[in-house]
Amino acid sequence: MSIKPEATVPVLLLSVRDEYLGRRWLPPDHHWPDRPSLIGGLDLAAGGTWLAVDPERRVAACLLNGFGPPAPAETRLSRGELPLVAVREGGIGHLDLTPYDPFHLVLVGPHGARVASWGHGRLTESDLPTGLSVVLNDGLEGLAGSRTTSERIHALMAARADRFRARFAAAPRPEPAGDGPTEAAWGAWLPIVSGDGLALDDDAALIQRRDFGDGRFWGSSSISLLAVGPDRLRYDFGPAPVPAGGDAWRRVPLG
C-alpha cells in the first residue's frame, strides 16, 4: 500500500491473494445480483470475495485471513462477505464479528486507507500512514495482537515484507491513469509485482508456492493492482504466477 496525499493518484494498493491452490475462484466481475454495482473476484467455495470494489464510491476493501482462536463452528460465517459489506457500508465496526474467524480488512478510499483487525474477540482499527505500508496475515507491519505461533511462517512473512518494501521504495512511484495497458500504467512497479525474478519457493518470494506437508499446496493465485484518487479509479488484475510475456494482465472494466 502506498499513500501519497499530494499525488495525482494518492492511493495505490497491491493485493496478492494467497490460498490453498485447490480452492476454485473466478476473476473480478459483477458476481452478486443483490449488489449489482460491486466488482470482485468470486470465491466459489463460499460465495464471497477477497477484494471488493465499489466504483460509484471509489472505495475498495481487501481481506486477509488472520491468526488466533476460530469462531464457534456452529455459528461460523464466511469472511468473504466482509469486503462486500465494508465497501457498501463504509466499514465493519457496526457488525457483530463473533461469527468470524480472525482477519484483517483494509478499506481504501480516494484519500487514504485504514485496516481493521479482528482476533481474540477484539476489533482494532488504524489509519495507514503516508508512505509505504505492508499488511500481512500478522496484521499491519506484522504487529497484530493475534499473530502466528509458527516461527517459520513468521520468518517467511517478514522476509517477504522486508524485501518488497525496499524494492517498491527504490522504484519510481507510478501514477496510473487513462486507458493504456497495465505495463504503461504501473511502470517500474510491474516487474516487482510480477515476482521480481525470485523462485516460487524463495523465503522472500512475493509470488509463492509452499508445501506445508499436509498434501495440499498453498500459494499465490492472483494479483490485484488498484489506483484510487478523487477523480479516478483503476483496477488491473492478473493470475499468479504471471505467465512469461506479461500478456495475462487486464484492466478490469469499472463502468
Describe the structure.
- With 255 residues, this protein is α+β, with helices and mostly antiparallel strands.
- It is built from 4 helices and 16 strands.
- It has helices at 82-89, 151-170, 182-186, 189-193, and strands spanning 2-3, 11-20, 25-29, 39-43, 51-54, 59-65, 103-109, 112-119, 122-127, 131-132, 135-136, 139-140, 209-211, 217-229, 232-239, 250-251.
- Strands 1, 2, 10, 13, 14, 15 and 16 form a 7-stranded antiparallel β-sheet that branches.
- The protein starts with a strand and ends with a strand.
- The model has no long low-confidence stretch (mean pLDDT 95).
Q: How do the helices and strands follow one another from N- to C-terminus?
A: EEEEEEHEEEEEEHHHEEEE
Overall average pLDDT: 95
* Fraction of helical residues: 10-25%
Output the number of helix runs.
4
Distance between the termini: 24 Å
Instruction: Assign the structural class, choosing from mainly alpha, mainly beta, alpha/beta, alpha+beta, or little secondary structure.
Output: alpha+beta
The total of beta strands comes to 16
Q: What general form does the structure show?
A: globular
Q: Are there runs of 5+ residues with pLDDT below 50, and where?
A: none
Main sheet makeup: 7 strands, antiparallel
Residues in β-strands, percent: 25-35%
Alpha-carbon Rg, integer: 17 Å
